[in-house]
Amino acid sequence: MAYSFPEEVLEHVFLFLSSDKDRNAVSLVCKSWYEIERWCRRRIFVGNCYAVSPEIMIRRFPEVRAVEMKGKPHFADFNLVPEGWGAYVHPWIRAMSVAYPLLEEIKLKRMVVTDESLELIARSFKNFKVLVLSSCEGFTTDGLASIAANCRNLRELDLRESEVEDLSGHWLSHFPDNCTSLVSLNMSCLGSEVSFSALERLVARSPNLRTLRLNRAVPLDKLPNLLHRAPQLVELGTGAYTAEIRSDIFSNLTEAFSACKHLKALSGFWDVVPAYLPAMYSVCSGITSLNLSYAAIQSPDLVKLVSQCRQLQRLWVCDSVCCLSCSRLHRRHGLEALAASCKDLQELRVFPSDPFGGEPNVSLTEQGSSLYPEGCPKLQSVLYFCRQMSNAALVTIAKIGEFYPLSDYALSSLELPIITLEPLDTGFEPSYGACKLLGHKMPRLNVEVIDERARPIPGESCPVEKLYIYRTVGGRRVDMPGFVWTMDESAAALRFS
Amino acid sequence: MVTTDEKGPLTAKKKSVIIRSCDGDEFLVSESAAVLSTSLKKILEEKEDRLIHLSDIDNKTLAMVIAYLSTHADDGLSDDLKRSFDQEFVSGKEFDVLKYLVLATDTLQVTCLCYTVAKKMADIMKNKLVEWVRREFDIQNDYTPEAEAEIRRLDAWAWDDRQLEDD
């Protein structure tokens, strides 16, 4: 061999390989590369906390600085995973608190996080910087207070879509006065009021704050105060966008928005009063992302707003945009305006205004036929949350596909949340016996049946209620509640004997 | 190699050193450029000799490193110009050339250039298969097929960010 690579040179190269795929490829080259790579892997992504164990992770990667992990399956978003199913993060935090004292980032999705875990994080990692809890649950504002009080270098605290038990709005005042490192604060999921003076002081002493997403309890007339203190904001989530119509509030708001020259993303807008929307028109020309999924905004107001946002790339709306009170003409009008104004639009999501309600506001067939192909040439993704997957809807999807024959349009994700719930017309009705067989044949798969029906234990031919199958290198999990049945041989023998 | 004239009074005669590659070519380099390499700096501090022989760097690679050092020693160039020089410097270079270059920067301890080249190598290695990496680095696979399959499975199942991005 003409040359051999010293370890430190390879390390430099590996450090610039950021994706897991490339890191995994490198560790497969030979045994010595495997060793070098594992010691310099700083970021870990675990797609399913039951696919691997903390012990396996720590043994392989001793010097990790950032961990991202997901817990419950995606269908948990549609209330299909019963409470107590699992995805507890505490065993992971406990193991990491010993093994990774230099850990800086934790990002969790759909996991159960307790105050005990948050306190352990706050105590254990001296240089902790980023905490993202996305669709997580199990903790209170007390846990957040200990994060605020102890993580002196905290840059990001993001609680998107989490369920937090609000014990006190004063948790924000636990950020010490010398904490000036915040770059991102997202507390949009919190239900109750926060201490506004603590929030104001925190925003004022955070010169690097780029993202601020407020919760519904922050009233509109307080927003100008915050904006004046943070004109550098790039992403803003408003609180409730409602107030009695008063010219002084309107002019304060208009003035505050006009000072924010860097805003690119807007969200929030709970209880929106359309009369106040023009107060933010001055920032619209720079907006690339608009999330109106919490705003029950009517089509004409949306048209006016969207036509200001010429650079819009991402739009999330709620399907009341095309609600029943509008005529069919209006419904089309909303999407046509979108197509006419937003030539850069890449992503459109339409959320159900009442996901668990009865009749859908609008059916996919009508929506789909309003999407005009010539309007938004850069459109890459349309996500439509539908409750009913009718034949007609499938025809519509096929038609959208035909509209864009050159495949510059892809219906990239289509959510079918309910299809796993009722096996009515699918012809697929797995029985307990079949699941047992699968678990037995595929020892690397964890086959879980989730069944909350009354005991006694169902017979082998009985159809299962919910089924969750995933592959794992961590073995069987040990923390299942009584309504989860793992379909491996030993468990089956235990439970079905 | 000609260096730019110093502005202001000349307090000392401008010093140069000669660096010889493993294949015998000699390069005249200003001392201010040479000392940007931590290794060369140490050698120059320790001995009076103005001729330094590098037994494991070939002439092509050495010429590139010296071009880099001379540019970065030039006080007349702004940091912005030096940065764009760095980008130019690695762009379009073959992977093989970069490999020798990164080894030379390691030997000579030129940290900034080492990072620049390492990053460029990583950019090229992105999305490449294991087999490509083995070939380019001339590395024998010392895994048994079973061991390799086991690691592949673990990696794909436990830590892989490809599939679950927005899930």
Automatic annotation (TrEMBL), chain A:
Per the UniProt record, the lineage of the source organism begins with:
Eukaryota, Viridiplantae, Streptophyta, Embryophyta, Tracheophyta
Cite the InterPro entries for this sequence.
COI1_F-box, F-box-like_dom_sf, F-box_dom, Leu-rich_rpt_Cys-con_subtyp, LRR_dom_sf, Transp_inhibit
Q: Which SMART domains match?
A: FBOX, LRR_CC
Which source organism?
Rehmannia glutinosa (Chinese foxglove)
Q: Name one Pfam family in it.
A: F-box_5
Provide the protein name.
F-box domain-containing protein
Keywords from UniProt, A to Z, are: Auxin signaling pathway
Q: Where is the F-box domain?
A: 5-46
From TrEMBL, chain B:
Q: Which UniProt keywords apply?
A: Ubl conjugation pathway
Q: Does the keyword Ribosomal protein apply?
A: no
Pathway this chain belongs to: Protein modification; protein ubiquitination
Show the InterPro entries listed in the entry: SKP1 (IPR016897), SKP1-like (IPR001232), SKP1-like_dim_sf (IPR036296), SKP1/BTB/POZ_sf (IPR011333), Skp1_comp_dimer (IPR016072), Skp1_comp_POZ (IPR016073)
Q: According to the lineage, what is the superkingdom?
A: Eukaryota
| SKP1 component POZ domain segment(s) | 15-73
The UniProt function text for this chain reads:
Involved in ubiquitination and subsequent proteasomal degradation of target proteins. Together with CUL1, RBX1 and a F-box protein, it forms a SCF E3 ubiquitin ligase complex. The functional specificity of this complex depends on the type of F-box protein. In the SCF complex, it serves as an adapter that links the F-box protein to CUL1.
Stated name of the protein = SKP1-like protein
- Species, as recorded: Rehmannia glutinosa (Chinese foxglove)
